[in-house]
Amino acid sequence: xxxxxxxxDQALLLDLQALDTKLQQLDHRSxxxxxxxxxxxxxxxxxxxxxxxxxxxxxxxxxTTELRRIEADVVVVEARIAxxxxxxxxxxxxxxxxxxxxxxxxxxxxxxxxxxxxxxVMEKLETLENAAQITAAxxxxxxxxxQTIAAERDESLGALTTERGNxxxxxxxxxxxxxxxxxxxxERQRSxxxxxxxxxxxxxxxxxxxxxxxxxxxxxxxxxxxxxLICPDSQAVLxxxxxxxxxxxxxxx
Length: 253
Prior knowledge:
It is rod-shaped, with a radius of gyration of 42 Å. It is built from five helices and four strands. Helix content is 75%, strand content 5%. The chain has 253 residues and is mainly alpha-helical. It folds into two domains: 7-27 and 179-240, no CATH class; 33-175, Helix Hairpins (Orthogonal Bundle).
């Protein structure tokens, strides 16, 4: 048995379709917020800087360890210099004095070399620490930008969520006024074909944008006002109104 519904109820399906289209648009806007793209781009930069910080921190640690080792070597050499110098002062043996003086000369050369290396490593460490501080500051700045934009994103999403809630409430109100079988047909067609209702305006189906053929228009014209029709192009419920162009044109006198 063909489904029947009053023209007024059928017309309400257009309101239902408009609200469903609005919901789709809101969902798309939620997924396409400019803040999301901005955060994604900044997150890539944040990840790069985080990895750079990790690498630079490791190099700073290694260089610090190297500096401490050199400082320890300097301490050892200076201790040996102090020991040999004390032995030299106390020695009365010409042979021992010669040996100690030779050893002291070698130790002092070694100390000078270590101090030069120590200075170079200290300068290197300072450069590395400065670079690491710059990277850390850049990373912190990017994270702050992400936090700011995330707050803007949350605000935008909140507004869209509120708007979506209002649309859902309006949809429920309209759906609740319609016959269950009419709503079920609408939902089935929308689920299958993307549109549940299509406005026939001037012989053109709004869902497909296609003009109905004359034989199709003849079928539509012959249908009772409460017959529920399906658009042959979009497969949505075809809604007829005064704009549908169903009244044949009167031939000119």
